[in-house]
Amino acid sequence: MNAAVLQDGQVIFGGTDLTINQINSIAKGHAEVCLSEKEEFISRINRGAEFLDNLWKKEGVIYGVTTGYGDSCTESIPTELVEELPSHLFTFHGCGMGEMFSIEQSRAILAARIVSIAKGFSGVRYKLLQKLVDLLKKDVIPVIPQEGSVGASGDLTPLSYIAAVLCGKRKVWYLGQQMYTTKVFDALQIAPLRLRPKEGLAIMNGTAAMTGLACLAYKRAEYLSQISARITSMMCIALQGNAYHFDNSLFSVKPHPGQNQIAQWIHEDLNVGAAPKHNNRLQDRYSLRCAPHVIGVLQDSLPWLKRFIDNELNSTNDNPIIDGENEKVLHGGHFYGGHIAFAMDSLKNAVANLADLLDRQIAQLSDVKFNNGLPANLSGAVGTRSSINHGFKAVQIGASAWAAEALKQTMPASVFSRSTECHNQDKVSMGTIAARDCIRVIELTEQVAASALMIAWQGIQLRIRSNSILWNSLSYSLKNTIKQVSDQFTLLEEDRELEDALRRFVSLIQKRHWRLYEA
Ligand SMILES: N[C@@H](Cc1ccc(O)cc1)C(=O)O
Asked: Which positions carry the signal peptide feature in this UniProt record (predicted)?
């Protein structure tokens, strides 16, 4: 990877926990990755693999090594076929369907799997970890179809694409293209690996697909919470709303810290002092007045969501657990992604509520019945020209469609558990479906936020043009965002196609371009 873009420094796998931010940096190709070369780490990893080898020689039976997988564990594998077993595992799971995960998402998934295996309880060789890290280093990224995981025997099918690629099979992303793995391996002189008995299972039997996605979703949601607060402030100015709805003493009696934080940010943006003794101003509609109560649900959820994701990311999500130190093989269900499933089901609900909130704010601002004297659909056309111009009418309709589509995706996935694999997997998490839904909800909400930002900016510009607000009365933070939008967008006077501008705004949200709050 180009050294010039490695702005986030180095990330070392092995020995320490990784953060959600580090997974995001790796996904974006902004971090240089390496594997710990500490003697103690290398020997701890290898001890697990050696212990397994010795145990196999001594006892002759180890689940997933000398037996079939899952419900087929009663099948014992003749010694001469044991070596072939791992390649059967990734081969029969080569049945993923649907769209492919993006390169960014696939890097996050690969990185999440390495974090888990590097905990040292998966019974693999150090060499396998080296090979996995090498893929990231050389940016040779497995192509992974999105569909086919129930999220509780691990993400078996998606992760089979990582195992297969290590062995030189299937396809990889390289230089932005999908290419056959053999071709890229030949060109880069990467030798395919032959998996040792437990190694196929170690790569596949965990929650890395949903967890990698969860790390990406978390970062985007965190930003959406902040930008929704900033947009609400702009909407409040444009609608000439009641700034005292965000007063500090009002919020001191409702002690949700995240909700208070949002109210405080909006209050500071609005540049007003403490509420007067008696406030005659009318109460605004809920999408303004209750904005901290809606955005606050997400803001207050971020800490526990982070804890769930951090813990899953830095866990050994595998089975069986190989404890080389104490020479134990522990059988359990650590491939079960219940925490990520619940986190993603919850996150998509909280985020979709932002789409809904912003869509309602847009509706108020576009409608002359509610917008306190602004033109219909925020059109900036004047004189007779205003009769043929329709301003943001279609963008408002679009925002309603995106909000509805986001809300429609909030059905929890985790409640759709179904018994599968001959009733061995009779309760599963569906966490990967939850994470994919969550990403989609986030995408749609970013579209609504992009429209809301544009429309709120137009509302403020129209107020400035008609002298109903003064530029100098605005807070530093609002002026800053308004200037940033002015660099990207000019006042909508005559109707024009807004698709390109909207797409640019969405991408600027994803790049965290808009300067928001110091949390
Ligand atoms: N997750 C199962 C293993 C398994 C692997 C592949 C399968 O197709 C099914 C089950 C376990 O550890 O018990």
From this structure: none
